Amino acid sequence: MAKKYIFPDRCLISFSLVGGLIITLTLLALLNMTVAELGDIPYLLKVASDAKVIDSIVLTMGAGVNAILILLLIGTPLAYVLARADFPGKGVVESLVDLPLMLPHTVAGILVYILFMSRGLLGAPLGEIGITFEDAYPGIVVAMLFVSSPYFINSVREGFEKVPVHLENVARTLGATRFQAFMRIVLPLSARHIFNGSVLAWGRAIGEFAAVIMIAYYPMVISTLIYYRFTTSGLKESSTVAFVMIIACFGAFLVLRFISRFMRRYDDRI
What is the pTM of this model? Predict the structure, then answer.
């Protein structure tokens, strides 16, 4: 289907000018930092090639990916139930799903820490089988999982709700089980929403600081490293590390948005 272009009128122009303030603020912040950092390229290259900085960025993005993989396994079924079923207490479940959105990050960190610390309800029994969360990689993943789950579940739920129920019903009248209809019809038709939800949740996960630092100061994710460099070495070094992370995130999200646009074009052809 050919893309439709909308010619701007006064309303669209006005909205663009008002909404453009957000883009302007972001651009000003980025340009200000970029000019400052490019003024000392040798130092920028030195920081960018620092093994600790590289390891921290890889650790952060990798832990975010692990959190999303877990959400794909346990968040997708929950999103489907919320999209298709009405049951007593559904409002309570929906509120619990959205709770991490409203909590201060420090409160989210305390919740995760109390549950997964070495004496915690889950941390103690899992520690007995060798799975440690305090100052350990699993602690980073569960903290990211907790704060990013609403973004994933709500996005995927919206995708499931857009798939007409009668398509599943037709498949079931032809002998398919609900699970088979889900796998062969609902999932493929919701693929773009699942992908976009994963991108949003991943972005939220890798940007977390307070919840992560409370349960796992080490190994350092990039936000912890930036804070550490700021308190020990000052603004110059911490801002350079932040600039390197901005470049890495911008490149990653450019690729992910390109994939999303490609999936949208594919959906339009169906």
Answer: 0.88
